[in-house]
Amino acid sequence: MKTSMQVLDPRIWTVFRRHAPQTLTYWSVFFSFGLCIAFLGPTVLDLRCQTQSTLQQITWVFFSQQLFLLIGSSLGGLLEKTLTSSLLALFSSTLIISLVFAIIPLCHHVLLLSIAMALAGKAMGVIDTIGNLQLVKLYQKDSAIFLQVLHFFTGLGALVSPLVADPFLAEDSCVLGANWTMNSSSLSDLEHLRNSLVGHGAALHNTSQYPLNVEGVVVTRVSYAFWIMALINLPVPAAVLALMYHERRLSCSSSTTRLLHKEPRSSPTKDSSQGHEGVFDCCSPKVRGQPASFFILHALGGGIVFITDGIIGSYAGFVYTYAVSPPLLMGHKMAGCLDSIFWASITAGRLSFIYLSYRYPAPTLLTINLVGVILVQCLLLIFYTSCVFLFIGTCVLGLCISSVFPSMLALTEDMLDYKGCATTVLVTCASAGEMLLQLLVGSVIHSRGSYSFLLCSTVTSVICFCLFLLLLYTCRIHRNHHLGKLLCCRFDDLVGSRLWLLNSD
After folding, report:
1. Which of 133, 129, 98, 142 lies closest to 116, judged by CA?
2. Could you tell me which of 303, 277, 356, 320 has the C-alpha nearest to residue 85?
3. Residue 175: beta bridge partners?
4. Which value, in Å, is the radius of gyration of the alpha carbons in the chain?
5. How does DSSP assign 355-401, residue by residue?
6. In sequence order, what DSSP letters do the residues of 172-226 get, joined into one string?
């Protein structure tokens, strides 16, 4: 009984109860983030019908979403100066996501749809940066476990979104031309295209072989899916608004500002000008005297999440293409399950690492994760002709890579004494990696064949692990520098006090 009661430190529960309203709100905001990031792939063929555009035209909405997600991640640091501005940014971003869901059925031109997805992407980027920053500021040394829960809610939202959309997806062509006849071959083509588009549309190259009508009668029910997701997401901005009222951040609330609980670890959340000052706060005058190791840690941490989030994006985008290509030649239905298995294993991994991040330090977990990613991808290269091992490897890879970003974020902020700049840098680098590495892998696959997909992922995984070892070494140098500086300061204080005593005598 005593052992079961000590699953979590009572101090963790005490801190959580103190910050429960803020923490639960940030978790719900990341559910909104996950809900928005996963719906586009399954519904894009129906959106093509709605906008009566070609497949090449509709894939621009993927690019607009990813590009503005990167821009929003960078701008999130600028909006995070105070608690009031942070909550206002979260409220407006989550409300924008609901509005985008509601207006997507009204976008009957691909340009309007791209603009809507750009707005959604920018809102998602702001949420990503501010949500991570606020949790790090609230919990600091204890932030690792709460960051794992935060990113679990992202995976949960990413699982819910396709489930909501699936009943409303067209089972055949949703643009019926005058000479259109449905047969089993065209149904198979549509299924193949839908599965290819799930991975952010990057797998489309030779699409002219699929005769999809542009002009004709549009018959699609996907609008209902977006309106349902808008309703599901609507409680999230309401929760942020309630938190603003709870913290006395609304003009209609009491005129006296309600301070957060006064303790050293939560003081950065007060509404003051001492918060995060911008995207590159690490270059501001207050930290300009930092050693080179300070900036190297930012660069190495950003490089690691750039690669790992890029691997997630590229694997989700191209595992279907790899599975249906030689030598595997897997069936469309079976290959279509791989992407769902991958995201489900990522969600399950984040759920399991909630407890593991409490029991073990971040460097240990990151070492196990990155070594596991390398081993799995090497085995996938060795057993490249096995369909069974592809399913097993996909599941294990999702489990291993699932918690790299939250663990890396907690570790880097700990190394840098929670100055806040690391969160913005890491979130921006992760967004850039998910967009750019996916494009790079896609171009390599197009020119060198599907086998290069696994080879690229394995090489980047090895590079990522080397960067992690260099990060640990740089961290040791950085801490030794700070220890030496602290000892020098204490020695100077001691000498100064002795001289003062001698002069007074």
Report:
1. 98
2. 277
3. 218
4. 25
5. HHHHHS-HHHHHHHHHHHHHHHHHHHHHTTT-HHHHHHHHHHHHHHH
6. S-SEE-TT----HHHHHHHHHHHHHHTTTTTT-S--TTS---SSSEE---HHHHH
d(CA 501, CA 325): 82
- The residue length of the chain stands at 505
More confidently predicted of 216 and 470: 470
CA 89 to chain centre: 18
* Structure confidence by residue, pLDDT tens digits, 468-501: 999 999 988 877 765 545 444 444 444 445 444 4
Q: What is the model's pLDDT at position 305? A: 95
For the chain, counts of helices (H) and of strands (E): 19, 2
pLDDT of amino acid 195: 67
Q: Are 201 and 161 in contact (CB under 8 A)?
A: no
Q: Give every CB contact of residue 1 below 8 A, 6+ residues apart in sequence.
A: none
pLDDT digits 0-9 by tens, 154-169: 988 888 888 888 888 7
pLDDT in tens, 40-62: 777 877 888 888 887 778 878 88
Q: Give the mean pLDDT of 437-460.
A: 85
Which strand (E) or helix (H) includes residue 10? helix 10-18
Residue type, 94: T
Q: What residues contact residue 444 under an 8 Å CB cut-off, 6+ apart? A: 452, 453, 456
Distance (Å, rounded) from C-alpha 434 to C-alpha 270? 33
Distance, in Å, from the CA atom of 110 to the CA atom of 249, rounded to the nearest integer, reads 39
Q: Which tokens in the block code for residue 2?
A: 């005593």
Four-point Cα dihedral 311, 134, 296, 357, nearest 10: -60
Report residue 266's pLDDT band, with 50, 70 and 90 as the boundaries: very low
Report the C-alpha gap between 308 and 303 in whole angstroms. Answer: 9
